[in-house]
Amino acid sequence: QQQVKQSPQSLIVQKGGIPIINCAYENTAFDYFPWYQQFPGKGPALLIAIRPDVSEKKEGRFTISFNKSAKQFSLHIMDSQPGDSATYFCAAGAPNSGYALNFGKGTSLLVTP
Amino acid sequence: GAVVSQHPSWVICKSGTSVKIECRSLDFQATTMFWYRQFPKQSLMLMATSNEGSKATYEQGVEKDKFLINHASLTLSTLTVTSAHPEDSSFYICSANSGANVLTFGAGSRLTVL
Question: What is the model's pLDDT at position A87?
Answer without folding.
Answer: 97
